[in-house]
């Protein structure tokens, strides 16, 4: 562990000196709008971020225009007026809990793409956003990947045209994507349309988490492992796949989870990453925000460990086990992102932090 820390310290030092300055760094996070009452946008410490994503709006399943309810209308307006001009705001469309078939149908024809694109720009401008983000989880076939590539082409063209017509800076266009550039684990093999991504997006948010979870209760896991000696399911391998597919490093923004996944240990005597488990642990859907993990660790006097192989934190009390990212793993991951010359990082989700501990650590480690 000491050796690894040392190597990373050197990497952070060396690369912080040579990192090109022509691209602004991205220090960002998604804000879940459903946390509005407990965690309003006004609670965000904007000094720690460059961009905040509003999560989420969805297009209507028939017209493919963005649906904005009355309550969303005021939440959207409050979000941008509260955060600007301190940070840039990006409207994210989609989300992991939404039906991917709506996007598949929308992207399949020129007419439906046009309706969606038009509405995204209208809504984005109406509420004063600086950009748009698509979180389609996920295209299921090579055809849908092709359609997504086409959507990006037409979306970028529409953004350019709107900017010219209105004499304003164009809206940013980003997408949240799978941790790897192709779905090598899936039965239906498909890969993202990298040339279209490269040409039409400002950057991509690579979702470097959820590698392990409640769907496999046989053993504990580091759900956002930086390294995995036994497979290609890790953040380092995923990011490498994007780079090898041709996406410039300065278009890659690394996802960092502000939550953990939980398991029930078979025995509290065997408690590392990969220890035998018999079921899911505490938390809704066997997940806990970083803030909940900190409270759990305190209340239960949990034992906290660092796993140098996966670069992750874990804690356990009795047989309840949580794998998560803490200050130490976040520092090393940011060092890795710097060494890899990535554009920046994003958190899912900003409301999961505890007293800004992780966001501060990340921002400080990244540097200006
Ligand atoms: C947004 O909402 C928060 C919390 O409800 C409130 O304190 C703040 O004044 C609002 N901001 C604006 C610009 O409306
Ligand atoms: C969207 O469509 C409407 C109606 O055709 C049009 O007036 C408007 O300019 C379009 N907006 C954009 C951003 O293309």
UniProtKB/TrEMBL annotation:
Residues 1-20 form the signal peptide. It comes from the Eukaryota. InterPro entries: Chitinase_II/V-like_cat, Chitinase_insertion_sf, GH, Glyco_hydro18_cat, Glyco_hydro_18_chit_AS, Glycosyl_Hydrlase_18. One of its GO terms (cellular component) is extracellular region. One of its GO terms (molecular function) is chitinase activity. SUPFAM superfamilies: (Trans)glycosidases (SSF51445), Chitinase insertion domain (SSF54556). The chain crosses the membrane at residues 36-57. This is GH18 domain-containing protein. It comes from Kingdonia uniflora. The lineage of its organism: Eukaryota, Viridiplantae, Streptophyta, Embryophyta, Tracheophyta.
